[in-house]
Amino acid sequence: NITAILDLNGKTLKVTGGAGTYGGGRAIKMEAGNLTIKNGTIDGRSYDGEILNPHSSGTGWSSTRVGGCLRVSGGSATLDNVTMYNNDSWGSGIMMESGSGTLTVNNCTFSSLYGTSITCGDYNTETLSTGYNAVTNIYNCTFTQEGIPTDDMNFNAACLASQYGATINVYGDTRATGENAFAIFSSGGEINVYGGTYSAKHYIVNSYGVQEGIYYGVYANVAQVNLYDGTFTDLNTDVAFKFNNDNHNAILITGGTFNVNPYPKVNHETHDVWKNDETSVKYIVVEKNASHEGYNTQVTN
């Protein structure tokens, strides 16, 4: 079981072309062991600036497209003080595929055009492995995502995404701004948010539930989002949480402040929602009988 450290020492690792038919070219692909990457930049953008949409022509994966920065097909990885760039409309800056590993991300900055910054969980047709039990833990990171390449691919325009039963945990002063802040794809997964600041042009949560049986017979039991704390701003003030089907879709809010009413997604037996119309972030979710200073009107619907 190999342990390796890649200290970029302020340098930039640049992907300059595709390398393989599955997932396109990436700066780093690991298949086992423990890898730490720190102190530098990984640029996984297309070298010619092309908008990458490998499925638009119906020909499948492109063998020359750039597929992001890191793919974890096995083992565990840690990133510390790393900046990553990605513009793959079908992929991610990081794809955490491993079904038994953990991705830990500390104090990193991500910029993604069209695709996600991190997707946790994947199904690899080469290894026949799935992302079940894959875990990504994020601490004090900044995510910026923008752009939707085509209407039928708007699901991939998110800062963070979970699929194939994988789990993402977000902690500390993490900040994310994107077309969508969080997404769960059709094979299901779980996202837990324990703090941070998040804004979205479309939806804070864009979840596709669990479409059973369509992904090689592999799917999770639920598409679950738990918001324990944080500040959430949706620029589409009518709908902050989108659920594309009712199959095993679930969201539970037990804390945080919001600019749209979170009341329908709160457990009213244990928590209350309070409101202050004079603030831009109007709503707060607290435990029953807990302090709600500055929010003086209780919300009941």
What report would you give on this structure?
With 301 residues, the protein is mostly beta strands. Helices cover 0% and strands 44% of the residues. It has a 25-stranded mixed beta sheet that branches. Strand 23 and strand 24 form a beta hairpin. The radius of gyration is 19 Å and the shape is elongated. It starts with a strand and ends with a strand. About 7% of the residues have low confidence.
**Model regions low in confidence, pLDDT < 50 over at least 5 residues:** 19-23, 49-65
Amount of helix: under 10%
Number of strands: 25
How would you classify the helix and strand content by structural class? mainly beta
Strand coverage percent: 35-45%
**Assembly of the depicted chains:** single chain
Q: How many helices does DSSP assign?
A: 0
String of helices and strands: EEEEEEEEEEEEEEEEEEEEEEEEE
End-to-end Cα distance, whole Å, is 54 Å
Write down the overall mean pLDDT.
Answer: 79
Task: Describe the sheet with the most strands.
Answer: 25 strands, mixed
Radius of gyration: 19 Å
- Specify the overall morphology: elongated
